Amino acid sequence: MMLRYALRTVRHRKGGFLGAFLALMCAAALITACGTLLETGLRGTIGTERYAATPVVVSADQNVHRTTVKHKKGKTKTKHKAKPIAERAWLSENLTTRLSRVPGAERVIPELTFIAEPLTPTGTGTGGRTAYGHAWDSAPLTPYALTTGTPPHAQDDLVIDRYLADRARLKPGDRLTVQSTQSPRTYRVTGIAAPTGDGIRHQTSLFFSTAEARRLAAHPGQVTAIGVVPAEGTDTADLKASVAKALRGTTAQVSTGDERGPVEFLDAAAARIKLVSMGGAMGGTSLLVAVLVVVGTFALSVQQRHRELALLRAIAATSGQVRRLLGCEALLVGAAAGVAGALAGLPLGSWLHGRFVALGAVPATLQHTVSVFPLFAAVAATIIGAWAAARISSRRIARIRPAEALAEAAAERGRPAWGRILAGLVLLAGGTVLVAVLSVLRTEPASTPVTFLAVVVLASSVALLGPLLVKAAAAVLGAALRRTGPGGRLATANLRGNATRMASVVTPLTLLIGMTCTVLFVQPTLGHAARAQAREGIRADWVLASEGPGVPAGAARQLRTDRDVATEVVRTTVRVGLDKYAAQGVSTAGLARTWDPDVTAGSLAELTHDTVAVSELAADQLHLKPGSTLKLALGDGTPATLTVAAVYAKGLGFGDLTMAHDLVARHVDNPLAATVLVSTARSQEELAAAVRKFPGVRVVPPATADSLQAERLQANAEVNYFAMGLVLAFTAIAVVNTLAMSVSERVREFALLRLAGATRRQVLRMLRTEALSVLLLATTLGSGIALAVLTAFSIGMTGSAAPAVTPLVNVTVVAAAGLLALVGTALPGRVALKARPVTVATARE
Predict the structure, then answer these.
(1) How far apart are CA 388 and CA 327, in angstroms?
(2) Looking at residue 6, what is its pLDDT?
(3) Nearest to residue 828, comparing CAs of 769, 754, 743?
(4) Distance separating the N- and C-terminal Cα atoms of the chain
(5) In this structure, are strands 542-546 and 629-633 parallel, antiparallel, or unpaired?
(6) To pair with 133 at 20 to 30 A between CA atoms, which of 214, 362, 370, 502?
(7) pLDDT-based confidence at 810, cuts 50/70/90?
(8) More confident residue, 477 or 375
(9) Residues near 766 by Cβ (< 8 Å), separated by ≥ 6?
(10) What's the mean pLDDT when you consider all of the chain?
(11) In Å, how far are 52, 117, 127 from 195, measured between CA atoms?
């Protein structure tokens, strides 16, 4: 029975439910899109290309592990955790001999994979594909077969794939310079190979002779992986079991089927974790914002129907019946909006994945995965959210007596309920606690979720305390508004008399301004502090930078003399236990002339192959001081035990751990220096002439190198901007939606004003004045929330209460919010004023 009444109400009041429908639909679409990202991270397929013709692949373990045993109440609990390492782990080549004796193995093929960037004469490069070098002996893994020419035999022989040959217009006999792990070298193209089928889409292969491939791989006695080809009639599962048995006692892993993809594309495997984190963070923030917006929308919808609901109470409808009616209406609207939004979220999620691939946050090899689970989750969240919002919004009207309901329908309640005020104060206190916690968090993964949660919680407190804030604003602005004429006086009266309605508009505007400013200024705050530390710590006269994969060691040797110092810097990530730390390797000779990280304890003069310098943050977290022992796993998982030589302050600009260059370079995929710091009396032209034979290497002043680092940080920030952009877009839609709902309900009020003598222009001026007053309040609250959160973030991450807030950007955000407010007010206002005042005033409700 109640469902039938609810259906009739929705059918006859489509306009009243349109705002709630739009808000819920956008929320469902956003949750679905984020859900597909989360599912892609959890279950996304990474298809193999390189090992397409190799059913069984043996690789090294790409994780560090920690096992903890706890004894409690006579019971023993064992927990095992694993975290991925940053670089590729290598296998012992001796395993090839062991695997060749496995029953059912027809052929065992060792694989070498290393960076090999072709410097093509036409400058066309690899067309966005990553270039890898291999030994020609491993060509059958795909398989590649020669289409023309001969295999590489000499050290300067090279076979390239057809894709590169077509793009660069190369043929056998041509010369091609390749920048690999050593100094660039020019090779003679002896042949062109093509893979079987069209499965190679994300990489370009360059094949060298076996001896040259081993030299470039720079891992003597080790291989990247080992492919095992089964003999005819041998089942892959049986061969896998036999290989695993042969490898018992080692840490090597055996992969078949879709398991081979993560072995080949390590970046895609690592991106799973990043995508899960990103999808979860976006989805969680979206859900919080959606709940806040939808509750506000339903509250406004219930307020618009206050007279109708009061009449129902007056004719003997019980509180439970009113609640059930509103709940059924919410379920109907939520179900329709949830289904429509979930279906719209599928293409949105696909587009979002494509944008992340284009920005480099997610590799193209991680395939977008879609199932029904995100859709069901979005529909369920939307229905539950709509029902909960309706229940929360209807508490007041459902609980009061019928006579009181009619009285409140005639005039807005003078003061919000004590429960609402108390809840608002609790959220305000909770937001303050989050801001305080944020000021002591010193790592970005810990700070980022708390940052946005604090904004949402504080905005929620604004939503609950909104009527009081609007009345306070009316008291402050009243004198100024009354001087602007009749429109200002009417606006002041509305702000005071309809504070609850105006508060429903303040909330999404506050959230939009606060969230946008936080998103825009979080990364610059961190980036500016890091660049400032790097700028202050680099003492070099000049810096070598590369347009390719890095600066070769030969370029640094070319500049190193008795009087000149060239400090190579190679970067990586290491694990201490399961915790990840940014690290770098630096040349130790003459280091004090080129680099000063502000040592606060110990000395960089003690930095050798057996020691490490750590930042103050790492020292605090790991309880280290000069002389302490630090056990860590290098980039490729190799364990190392080092002695702390120094502690330095500028960890944000230079990373948490600093080791000797040669120690780090031996355990990274790309041993080329990210930069080379040069201390010399020679001019820029002289240095450029000395490194002219190294393609892509430039000599730049330290300030330019700093700007290059800023560009890299900006590229990373773009991913975060884009990730949160959808949440901000949803909030912007909610702002316009709420404004339109707020104005459209006032048709009768406008008609009475017109009949009392107000002109159409005066009514529109009143609406603009109200919108600007609300905007001023929302700007104050939103900017205040953002400033408090950003200041706490800056204190925690940089140690200084100096967030990087750009006034022009802040003004632009406020101007955009103001434009939304004026458009969302003016357009519905003009529509509402089109009807004849007499017709509207005499019409039955």
Answers:
(1) 8
(2) 63
(3) 743
(4) 24
(5) unpaired
(6) 362
(7) confident
(8) 375
(9) 486, 487, 488, 490, 491, 494, 753, 758
(10) 84
(11) 10, 20, 18
CB 243 within 8 A of CB 91: no
647: its two tokens: 């502690």
**More confident call, 276 vs 478:** 276
- Closest among 92, 31, 390 to 252, alpha carbons compared: 92
- pLDDT tens, position by position, 203-220: 999 999 999 999 999 999
Whole-angstrom distance, CA of residue 73 vs CA of residue 68? 16
Give the tens place of pLDDT for each residue, 104-118.
Answer: 999 999 999 999 999
Residue 233 Ramachandran class (φ > 0 left, ψ -120 to 50 alpha, else beta): left
Q: What is the Cα–Cα distance from 552 to 236, expressed in whole angstroms? A: 43
Q: Concatenated DSSP letters for 193-228?
A: EEESSS---SEEEEEE-HHHHHHHHT-TTEESEEEE
pLDDT at 818: 87
User: Hey, what's the torsion of the CAs at 34, 37, 39, 41, to 10 degrees?
Assistant: -140
Given its phi and psi angles, is residue 87 left (phi above 0), alpha (psi -120 to 50 degrees) or beta? beta
Rounded CA separation 698/406 (Å): 79
Instruction: Report the Cα 503 to chain-centroid distance in Å.
Output: 32
Q: Which of 273, 251, 269 is nearest to 61 (CA)?
A: 251
Q: For position 409, what pLDDT does the model report?
A: 47
Strands 611-615 and 639-648: parallel
Look at residue 405 in the predicted model and tell me its pLDDT: 53
pLDDT digits (tens, 9 = 90+) for 135-146: 999 999 999 999
Judge residue 400's burial from the number of C-beta atoms within 10 Å of its C-beta, 0-12 exposed, 13-18 middle, 19 or more buried.
middle
Nearest residue to 470 (alpha-carbon basis) of 454, 486, 493: 493
10 Å CB burial of residue 735 (0-12, 13-18, 19+) is: buried
Which pLDDT does position 547 carry in this prediction? 83
CB 770 within 8 A of CB 495: yes
Helix residue ranges, H only, 697-804: 702-744, 747-755, 760-798
Burial readout 629-656 (b: 16 or more C-beta within 10 A, e: otherwise):
ebebbbbbbbebebebbbbbbbbbbbbb
With contact defined as beta carbons under 8 Å apart, do 212 and 155 qualify?
Answer: yes
Q: How many CB atoms lie within 10 A of CB 681?
A: 8
Full-model pTM = 0.81
- Asked if residue 605 has pLDDT above 70, the reply is yes
Gyration radius of the chain's alpha carbons:
33
CB of 114 within 8 A of CB of 222?
Answer: no
User: 249 in the Ramachandran plot: left (φ > 0), alpha (ψ -120 to 50) or beta?
Assistant: left
Element (H, E) at 567: strand 565-576
* 38 close to 238: Cβ distance less than 8 angstroms: no
What is the Cα–Cα distance from 220 to 93, expressed in whole angstroms? Answer: 9
Nearest in space to 641 (alpha carbons), one of 609, 619, 618: 609
